Amino acid sequence: MSIKEDFYNNLSSVLSSVRKGDIVIILGDFNAQVGNDNTSLQNVMGVHGIGRITENGRMLTEMCATNNLVIGGTLFPHKHIHKVTWVSPDSHTENQIDHILISKKWRGSLLDVKNKRGADIGSDHHLILATLRLKVAAVKRENKQTRRHNVSQLKVAEVANAYTDALKSAERNNPGESRDHWPGIKNIFITAANNHIGYIKTNRKEWISDETWNLIQQRKAAKAAINTARTRSAKLDSQRKHNLLNRMVKRSARCDKRRRIENIAKEAQAASETHRSRDLYKTVKQLANRPSTTSKPIRDENGSLASSSNDQLKVWENFYKNLLSNTDGSSNLQCNCARHADNDSVRTQCPSMKEIADAITTLKANKAPGIDNVAPELLKADPITSAKLVQPIIERFWSDGHLPGELKEGVIIKIPKKCDLSQCQALANQRGITWGLRGSLNDLDYADDICILAHNYDDMARKLKSISTLASKVGLNINVSKTKAMRINANNTRPFLLNSTPLEEHVINENGEVNREFIAYEFSH
Known about the structure:
Blueprint: H1 2-16, E1 25-29, H2 55-66, E2 69-71, E3 86-87, E4 94-95, E5 98-103, E6 110-116, E7 127-132, H3 157-173, H4 182-196, H5 210-228, H6 232-273, H7 277-288, E8 298-299, E9 305-306, H8 309-324, H9 353-361, H10 376-380, H11 383-400, H12 424-428, E10 433-435, E11 439-441, E12 443-446, E13 449-452, H13 457-473, E14 477-478, E15 484-488, E16 497-498, E17 501-502, E18 504-508, E19 521-524
Parallel strand pairs: 15-18
Antiparallel strand pairs: 1-5, 2-5, 3-4, 6-7, 8-9, 10-11, 12-13, 13-19, 14-19, 16-17
C-alpha cells in the first residue's frame, strides 16, 4: 500500500507545479476499477463505468478530486464491449482499468472516450481513443523535414537512362528567359528525380522478415475474429489462436533482430578489414542505434545562454556577420608562407562549359543535399546537361554579382570536437593545417605522445594552454624537458611557454634544414 500511496503523492506533487491555465491530460494503466456509482463523486466521474469500485479505484478518485481531474472513460454511454480496456488471458474476465484523465476546467473539450478493439498491438489491453476539441491559437510551423531521393537507383542502367533523358528533354524545352532563374532549374532536377528515381521509403523496420510480417497479418486476422465472434466458444477458440500467434510473432521478431545484429557485425568486421571507413561508420551507427544530438544552449557575446531556437539563430547570425564581414585582411593567417601570399595569376574569366562539367564530375557522392534537396548524384548523372542548365546562373553571377537567394542559405551544424559547444568562438578557433578547401589537421597522436599543429603563434599558444589545463584535470603532467617546439619559416620569435617555462625550439629554414622532429608532449602520472 505504501508504494501506491507514494505514487499518488508524487503524482499530486507534480500536478501542483503545473500552471493553473494549462490543460492536464493523464493516461495510462492505473489498474483501478472505479465502477459506475458516482455518489458524491459527480465532479470526478460519470455513471458509465464497469463493475464496482476497488481500493485502487478509491485512491484514483481521491487523487482526481484533490487535483480537479475527471475520469473520461466513465462519462460517455457505450456498449460494454467498447468500455473494456483489459481482457484476462483466459478471456473470462474483462475490466476497465486503463483511464484517460483530463482537467475539470477542460471537461467540455473531451467529446468521447472508447476502446479500439481492432487495433492489433500484441497486448491483453485494448487501445483507448479520446476525441478532443480545443480552441487554441493556431501556430504555423515550417516543415523542415525533407524527403531524400533514393539516388542509389541511379546505379540501375534503365533508371539512369530515363532520368538523363528527362533532363535532356527539359533542357531543350527550357525557355531562354528562365535559364538564369534557379527555382526553375532546381524544379527540373527535382521533377525528373520524382518521376524516375523516387524517394527513400521507410515503411517498416528493415530487420523484420517476410515470415514475421505474415505472422503479424495472421495475428491481426485472429484479433478481428475475436471481435466478431458470436458465441462464447468461438471467442475462446479465436483467443487461443491469437495468443499462440502473438507468441510466434514475438519469437520470430527476436530471431530477426538477432540475425540482423549478427549480419551488421559481420559487415562492420569486413569493412574494418578492407579499410572501408564509410561503411564501417555506417554499420557501427546502426548497431549503436543512438541518434547523435548536439542540441544544447549556446552563449552570446555577453556570455548569456540562448536556449530557444530563435535566440540561437540570432547568436549565430551575429557571430557569422562579425566573422565574415572582415574585409581589411586582418583575419588572414599571418604566417608569411607562400601558400597565403597574394596571387595575381588567378583566372578571372567566367568558367567555360567544360570547366563546369568537370567541377560537377568531381563532386563527392553520398553527401547530404542542401536546402534545395538537390543531391550531388542528381547533377553527376549527366554532367554535360547539368552544366548547360546551371551555366546561365553562373554567367549572371560572374557578370553582375547576382546570386539566387536560395543559394545563399545554409544549414549550421555543430559538430562535437575538443571544445565547449556552447561557445561560438571556441568552435571557430579550431583551426589547424588546412588540407584542400575543407579539412584541417590539428594534431597527430602517437600512443601517449601528441604532436600539435598550428598556423601561427597565437593559435599554438592557445592550444598549449588548453592541453595543459585538460591534462591537469585528469591528473596528467606534461614533461617540460621532453617537450620540443619547431617553427617552419616563421618570423615570430616569441618563445612558447609551458607552465611559465620556455620550451626548447628548433627552426626549419627556407632550405628545409632541420635537426629535430615535431613537438611531442609526453604525459606522466
